[in-house]
């Protein structure tokens, strides 16, 4: 993969805090290579307080063509974009930004679309289903949006940040599609339950969804990639549930991000 790496190689940066857990640098670089592009993806560990200063310098490097954004910068990085896709503008969040030949930066958000594709690939049909989503952050907002567009009849959203949760609920209800309401960690009565928070990355974390109330008819998902099988997913599988993991999501999101970055 690196035998042709040189000063001509185009650079894409993935930025987050923390960053050690992300799988994107290797996977995205592989995807660039499979498309015959001399390009690489590298990680940048940047704290929120330093993000604006970091970006002011990073964008001046003329060989940087794109940016992949992870926790907790998906909302903040919208301010770095000259233009946004319709979905990114609606959500106020981005996970991928590319630079055009004129030097303008265009942002989009693929977490939700990729997650729904992963769910459907793993056997979850969302039309007219009741769904519970825990987490209204960058990824959670995008997943909520895509669940509504996929035709769920009801979406309950739980997040400890009352303002963030209610803002998302109110925006989604303007679409006048499925009903969007406030939820809780209790999955009782839902067909689908998804964790879109970092809760579960540490061994000491509680489960973000009450696993005692999960039954075998539910479809359960989690966005976390490390560990590969979170306690939530392990508990759901033990009860016979179909599931989708963070790695399943990443495979779908990576394709969407790479296609966007390469303008395929």
Written description of the protein model:
With 264 residues, this protein is of the alpha/beta class. It is built from eight helices and twelve strands. The strands form two sheets. Strands 2-1-3-5-6-4 form a six-stranded mixed beta sheet. The longest helix has 16 residues, at 246-261. The model has no long low-confidence stretch (mean pLDDT 95).
Topology record:
Layout: E1 10-16, H1 24-34, E2 39-45, H2 51-58, E3 64-69, E4 83-84, H3 86-91, E5 96-99, E6 105-108, H4 111-121, E7 130-134, H5 138-149, E8 154-158, H6 162-173, E9 179-182, E10 192-195, E11 219-222, H7 231-238, E12 242-244, H8 246-261
Parallel strand pairs: 1-2, 1-3, 4-6, 7-8, 7-10, 8-9, 10-11, 11-12
Antiparallel strand pairs: 3-5, 5-6
Helix pairs in contact: 1-8, 4-5, 4-8
- Gross morphology is globular
Average pLDDT for all residues: 95
What sequence of helices (H) and strands (E) makes up the elements? EHEHEEHEEHEHEHEEEHEH
Number of strands: 12
The spatial strand order of the largest sheet comes to 2-1-3-5-6-4
The residue fraction in helices comes out at: 25-40%
Poorly predicted regions: none
Main sheet attributes: strand count, strand direction, barrel closure:
6 strands, mixed
- Give the oligomer, counting copies of the same chain as homo and different chains as hetero: single chain
Supply Rg.
18 Å
Q: What percentage of amino acids are in beta strands?
A: 15-25%
Structural class: alpha/beta
Distance between the amino and carboxyl termini: 21 Å
Number of helices: 8
């Amino acid at each position: 993969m690196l035998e042709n790496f040189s000063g001509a190689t185009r650079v894409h940066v993935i930025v987050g805090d923390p960053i050690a857990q992300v799988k994107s640098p290797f996977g995205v670089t592989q995807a660039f290579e499979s498309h015959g592009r001399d390009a690489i993806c590298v990680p940048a560990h940047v704290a929120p307080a330093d993000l604006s200063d970091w970006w002011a310098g990073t964008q001046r490097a003329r060989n940087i063509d794109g940016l992949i954004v992870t926790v907790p910068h998906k909302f903040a990085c919208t301010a770095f974009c000259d233009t946004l896709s319709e979905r990114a503008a609606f959500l106020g969040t981005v996970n991928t930004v590319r630079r055009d030949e004129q030097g303008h930066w265009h942002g989009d958000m693929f977490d939700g679309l990729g997650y729904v594709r992963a769910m459907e690939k793993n056997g979850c049909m969302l039309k007219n289903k009741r769904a519970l989503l825990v987490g209204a952050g960058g990824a959670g907002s995008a997943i909520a949006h895509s669940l509504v567009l996929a035709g769920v009849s009801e979406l309950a959203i739980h997040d400890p940040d009352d303002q963030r949760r209610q803002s998302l609920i109110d925006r989604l209800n303007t679409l006048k599609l499925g009903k969007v309401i406030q939820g809780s960690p209790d999955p009782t009565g839902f067909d689908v339950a998804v964790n879109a928070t970092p809760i579960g990355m540490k061994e000491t974390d509680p489960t973000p969804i009450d696993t005692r109330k999960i039954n075998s008819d539910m479809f359960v998902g989690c966005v976390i990639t490390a560990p590969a099988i979170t306690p939530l997913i392990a508990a759901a599988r033990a009860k016979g549930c179909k599931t989708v993991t963070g790695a399943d999501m990443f495979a779908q999101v990576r394709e969407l991000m790479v296609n966007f970055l390469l303008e395929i």
